[in-house]
Amino acid sequence: MASSRAWHNAVLLTAVVLLLRRSCCIDASSAATSPVATVTARPNPPSTTNQTRAPALFVFGDSIVDSGNNNVIETLIRCNFPPYGQDFPGHSATGRFSNGKVPGDILASRMGIKEYVPPYLGTNLSDFDLLTGVSFASGASGFDPLTAKIMLVLTMDDQLELFKEYKMKLEHIAGAERAAEIVSTSMYLIITGTDDLANTYFTTPFRRNYDLESYIEFVVQCASEFFKKLHGLGARRMNIAGAPPIGCVPSQRTNAGGLERECVALYNQAAVVYNAALEKEIKRLNGSDDMPGSVLKYIDLYTPLLDMIQRPQAYGFDVTNRGCCGTGVFEVTLTCNQYTAHACKDPNKFLFWDTYHLTERGYNLLLTQIINRDGLH
Ligand SMILES: *[C@@H]1O[C@H](CO)[C@@H](O)[C@H](O)[C@H]1NC(C)=O
Ligand SMILES: *[C@@H]1O[C@H](CO)[C@@H](O)[C@H](O)[C@H]1NC(C)=O
Ligand SMILES: *[C@@H]1O[C@H](CO)[C@@H](O)[C@H](O)[C@H]1NC(C)=O
């Protein structure tokens, strides 16, 4: 427990020092100094002219859906080393914060689009990759721009800037008309917000001028602005996730759950209040004059995930209060590495891979429940 705090404080301190050194914000132009995707030709990309089937999946958000963007930006929040990726093809540590696939991959695969959603940054994207969608997500990001800035990762606005750049590439390969059609008929998956509450509000001192209620209001306002900007860039079908039961995530149990590592009631309550406010705003924006033609969907992560945590056996898990990596009580990102931490014997028996992120099997079961209950669109 002490070492977790010490580690966390060290990361935070480093981040703050870097933040001060770099003055204010990372903007898209600093992100763009990284090796930016180059287009490589690929014959016969799939040409879907059907309005009902999404031709592509675009992903925005944080480490739940980052597929490797953080590998090429200047941040400590990364995981492109073993044991991350141990169950990915080739045991490849791609920068996905899990042992295998992350939700964007799983969703794209279930929609019959493709098996993996590549990161926009740092890879040589083929025409096929561009035509079928990429992830702009960045681990440790949040709707509150400060959340990303503290950890030197891409803000949601940075992600939108990259999306603009992406659209130009898409026009280049598909033509303006087809590109606009892909953008407007594709599915958008947006998963972030956890780090705003868990990190920025509850852990760092930077938002102490807000009480919880007003901070939640602020975050939902930022979220709302993001959806409107994304709509302005042509997106219509947005699936937006709420917060998980943050207090039951292993790292938060360790940090604030006492000796017994209980779920932290306050953090869960915060997630519930945030989710209600987010869902309300999503319903208000859905198809409104602010966002004509939009279809927004709120995804409840909280209920299915809490059920998985509370009833491990029902899902074939042995352990849901610790991560699979190392001791499972503090290892996450930098501290979950091959020199200090081995993965558990069977990740399929664990809901959590590290103290923050699910195993591939955990994500798979979570998505199954979400799709079975509400569907996505
Ligand atoms: C969409 O798919 C359906 C079923 O395959 C087909 O009947 C329809 O013609 C398609 N629409 C377009 C615009 O291609
Ligand atoms: C992308 O292609 C360039 C030029 O072919 C090459 O130098 C670079 O290493 C490639 N990057 C990746 C991530 O494969
Ligand atoms: C959004 O509007 C569509 C109709 O356009 C409706 O089917 C759907 O239930 C609405 N979603 C939410 C979250 O209110």
Automatic annotation (TrEMBL):
Gene Ontology terms, MF aspect: hydrolase activity, acting on ester bonds
Source domain of life: Eukaryota
One Pfam family here: Lipase_GDSL
Family matches, as CDD domains: SGNH_plant_lipase_like
Residues annotated as signal peptide: 1-25
Stored InterPro entries: GDSL (IPR001087), GDSL_lipolytic_enzyme (IPR050592), SGNH_hydro_sf (IPR036514), SGNH_plant_lipase-like (IPR035669)
Keywords tagged on the record: Signal
Keyword Signal: yes
Gene3D superfamilies on file: SGNH hydrolase
Regions crossing the membrane: none
Family stated for the protein in its record: Belongs to the 'GDSL' lipolytic enzyme family.
Official protein name in the record: GDSL esterase/lipase EXL3
Annotated source species: Eleusine coracana subsp. coracana
